[in-house]
Design brief:
This is Lipoprotein. Keywords: Signal. It comes from Flavobacterium weaverense. The protein has a domain of 96 residues: Sandwich (Immunoglobulin-like). The protein contains one helix and nine strands, in the order H-E-E-E-E-E-E-E-E-E. It is mainly beta.
Length: 150
């Protein structure tokens, strides 16, 4: 009886440690000063661009990797030494669906792929994923505003 209790308690401890390790924790501060974080939606090409402007050039030990915003993920690219941009494609791919009263004629239709976001965010929040010495970190940005395209 004691061995059964020990086995169950070891399993419970192992599971609780496993779930704690898989949770991504946000950093309280970003390693460099962020001047602005904003997004722009271009209605012509149907894309949303997310920008981060830093006060100084990005430290060589840091690398901006991804941004999670509005249930989408995009990779950062450098525009200048202080400005980084990520591009989201808002238009869905035009896939032809066959709709017919006879279900056998709809055989070639593909089910839509639905990706669940890693984070639960409000519409004005974003999470920046960056790495420092091959270690991944997450920083949550609050009050991301939209700026008009010039």
């Amino acid at each position: 009886m004691k061995t059964v209790i020990r086995i169950i308690s070891i399993l419970i401890i192992a599971l609780s440690v496993t779930f704690c390790a898989s949770k991504q924790e946000f950093q309280s501060e970003f390693p460099q000063e962020i001047i602005a974080a904003y997004y722009q939606t271009n209605k012509e090409d149907g894309k949303t661009y997310f920008f981060i402007d830093l006060k100084e050039q990005l430290n060589s030990k840091l690398q901006l990797e991804e941004v999670h915003f509005n249930d989408k993920t995009a990779v950062f690219e450098s525009i200048s030494k202080n400005t980084f941009r990520a591009q989201f494609n808002n238009k869905s791919k035009n896939t032809d669906l066959i709709l017919d009263g006879n279900a056998s004629k709809e055989y070639g239709n593909k089910a839509p792929s639905v990706k669940k976001s890693k984070f639960v965010l409000k519409s004005n929040e974003a999470v920046v994923q960056y790495s420092k010495k091959n270690q991944k970190y997450y920083f949550k940005i609050i009050n991301v505003n939209e700026r008009q395209v010039r």
